From TrEMBL:
Its main location: membrane. It holds the Pfam family MFS_1. This is EmrB/QacA subfamily drug resistance transporter. Residues 15-484 form the Major facilitator superfamily (MFS) profile domain.
Length: 501
């Protein structure tokens, strides 16, 4: 393991550029598809519960694959992993683009997910190894700029393509770019890696897959099926038991697949907690705002994408700025200011009405994204900075896995809160209308009741989300500037033992 963590004198910008382009295209693909789901439902004649598997399935494969990337990064060269990840993503894109039945489309999406799951931890690990701690914030800021520009242009581009072409064009648009990046990597990436004598523990892989997969599937299904569904609570229970078994097994292995001892480093544990809590709160904007503007306000997908564009642009353009500020001032001041902005703007979104103006929503969303941009990358980088270099693969894999899990939990929680509040408010408003009219409400009034009830459900979800963001704000006051810790004695012994074999 030690041979892969040497700090180079000069970063290999060629490798980093190729990895960033590959990660960008996989991120862009995700944001492109979200706005196309209604068109896919209509064309393939499937229900909402079925089409959601395009996102749920993608999340599941990521949750299963990402924990293995710590092993893969230690075992194989950057070149081999990039070609494998980009190759899977390209094949999946081609399959999805020529799909005429849902199972083929889903298979293509899962192939894309398996490739994407390799790309992100690989890129983050290369960034950590390539730059010293004092320059890492600026480097991660540029990384954030490139990756955040995908969500910036994705919804707007997708809305335009959907209005002018069929949904398959989204995949056909990505295919030649993905092929070009794959060929670029094949000819330009030349790094080699000495043979590393480590082997994948398949029992750990099994428990990891069932554990993370079960939890992700259970929480992802809760919003649609309800918490009382056996499909929800049984899969979550099996997932938790498998995950606990997986963690216990890792603590007993000489070379764990995913090393949970990294949580002994306080700044990494704190940064992971803040990122998870913020992820849950952030999903309220990603999930609830599109429902509000399209379902309640009747705004077109293209205009909805345009409304979110300034916020995404602010987030991407702020990444290099916050990176340099992080190098100069550390993570705490950025996190406290950013989370204060996020909490206040999330609370403001809990006061929406059916007359809230388009420009107000655009500006408020942009300010909220400004706050989030000041938190995500600085907090994550500060936590990773405390880890000894040989733990970087485990830290990046852990962060990406926890982001998937917290995203699923946040989505399920907020959808459940919105659904339950909408249902209870509908009953209240119907009872009030029936009493006032001394009879059943008209169809027009019934429609108005449903809209008001859904609005109340969305507002209440934003209200709860502001408290979730507030928890992250409290945690941010405990952040300290992190420096790499010393390599644990037992880890040195393991590395020495492997080197002598």
């Amino acid at each position: 393991m030690g041979e892969s963590i040497q700090q180079p004198n000069k970063p290999n910008y060629g490798i980093i550029a190729i990895l960033m382009i590959g990660a960008f295209i996989s991120f862009l693909n995700n944001t492109l598809l979200n706005i196309a789901l209604p068109s896919i439902m209509k064309d393939l004649e499937i229900e909402t519960a079925t089409v959601q598997w395009l996102t749920t399935g993608f999340m599941l494969v990521n949750g299963i694959m990402i924990p293995t990337t710590a092993f893969l990064i230690q075992k194989y060269s950057v070149r081999r992993l990039f070609l494998a990840g980009m190759g899977l993503f390209t094949i999946g894109t081609i399959v999805a683009g020529f799909s005429h039945i849902f199972p083929t489309l889903l298979a293509g999406r899962m192939l894309q997910a398996s490739g994407s799951a390799i790309m992100m931890p690989l890129l983050m690990n290369v960034m950590l190894v390539s730059f010293p701690v004092e320059k890492r914030g600026a480097a991660m800021g540029v990384f954030g700029l490139i990756l955040m520009s995908a969500p910036a242009i994705g919804p707007t581009l997708s809305g335009w393509i959907i209005e002018h072409y069929e949904w398959r064009m989204l995949f056909h648009f990505i295919t030649p770019i993905a092929v070009g990046i794959l060929l670029m990597g094949f000819f330009l990436l030349k790094d080699k890696k000495e043979k590393v004598d480590i082997h994948l523990d398949f029992i750990s892989l099994l428990f990891s897959s069932v554990g993370f997969g079960g939890i992700l599937y259970g929480f992802s299904s809760a919003g649609e099926k309800g918490w009382g569904s056996p499909q929800v609570y049984l899969t979550i229970t099996i997932g938790v038991i498998s995950l606990i078994t997986f963690i216990v097994r890792q603590s007993k292995l000489e070379r764990p697949m995913l090393n949970f001892t990294i949580f002994k480093y306080p700044m990494f544990a704190l940064s992971s907690s803040i990122s998870m809590v913020l992820n849950m709160a952030m999903f309220s904007g990603m999930l609830l705002l599109p429902i509000y503007v399209q379902t309640l306000r009747g705004i077109s997908p293209f205009d909805a994408g345009l409304m979110l564009l300034p916020g995404a642009l602010v987030m991407s353009l702020m990444s290099p700025i916050t990176g340099r500020l992080f190098d100069k001032f550390g993570g705490r001041i950025l996190a406290v200011i950013g989370l204060t902005i996020t909490t206040v703007t999330t609370f403001q979104l809990s006061t929406l009405t059916l007359e809230t103006t388009y420009n107000y929503l655009m500006i408020l969303h942009a300010i909220r994204m400004l706050g989030i941009s000041m938190v995500m990358m600085p907090v994550s980088t500060n936590g990773l900075n405390q880890l000894p270099p040989q733990f970087y693969p485990h830290g990046t894999a852990m962060n990406n896995t926890l982001n998937q899990v917290s995203g699923a939990i946040g989505t399920a929680l907020l959808v459940t809160i919105m659904s339950n509040r909408t249902e209870s408010r509908t009953i209240e408003l119907q009872a009030e209308a029936t009493k006032e009219l001394a009879g059943q409400p008209t169809a027009e009034l019934q429609q108005q009741i449903m809209m008001n009830a859904m609005l109340d459900g969305i507002n209440f979800s934003f209200y709860i989300s502001s408290f979730i963001a507030g928890v992250a704000l409290i945690l941010a006051f405990f952040i300290k500037r992190a420096r790499p810790a010393e390599e644990p004695k037992e880890e040195r012994q393991v590395v020495k033992k492997v080197a002598t074999n």
